[in-house]
Specification:
Distance between the termini: 67 Å
Order of helices and strands: HHHHHHHHH
Number of strands: 0
Number of helices: 9
Helix content: 55-70%
Structural class: mainly alpha
Strand content: under 5%
């Protein structure tokens, strides 16, 4: 789509309004880059998924509020970088929200088969393992608990004694 057509359709204003409705920062970013689909089948598929999502919302299923776009953290960790406690808190919150949404979608697969079908794109077990590793290490306020590592616990105990 050329810029003139996008302006005539007020696409920038639509993107901005859509982004303002997003509770997830990655959703806002994705909304900013959306382009209209031109393929009839693609449009129908997107409309069907939207209908399912609206039905779930109307049934009281929450969205990804509380989740964060953690792509940068994932890239850093993949390079072997050490993440700070605040970064780990963002990852933990996102994984928790993801697991909750997975569970809700799995339980409502009959109501939202298209959206439930997307669950296979992100394996559950690694999310469970990551949540299990992060929960006992984080204090929920941007800090690490003494039990986050043996060395940290030992160092903090030595500091308290001193």
């Amino acid at each position: 789509m050329d810029g003139r057509a996008a302006e005539r359709l007020e696409l920038p204003a639509i993107r901005e309004r859509l982004g303002g409705l997003c509770s997830f920062d990655a959703g806002r970013a994705r909304a900013a880059g959306l382009l209209p689909a031109s393929d009839r089948a693609a449009v129908a598929a997107l409309q069907a998924e939207t209908t399912e999502a609206l039905g779930l919302r109307d049934a009281g299923v929450g969205g990804p509020a509380g989740a964060h776009h953690v792509g940068a953290e994932v890239e850093e960790a993949a390079r072997g970088a050490v993440l700070g406690a605040d970064q780990l808190e963002r990852v933990a919150a996102t994984v928790t929200v993801g697991l909750e949404l997975r569970q809700e979608l799995a339980e409502r697969a009959e109501e939202a088969p298209l959206l439930a079908g997307r669950l296979g794109a992100v394996p559950r077990q690694p999310m469970v393992e990551l949540a299990g590793a992060l929960a006992p290490a984080l204090d929920g306020r941007g800090g690490l608990l003494d039990g986050a590592s043996v060395e940290l616990g030992r160092t903090r105990r030595a500091l308290r004694r001193a």
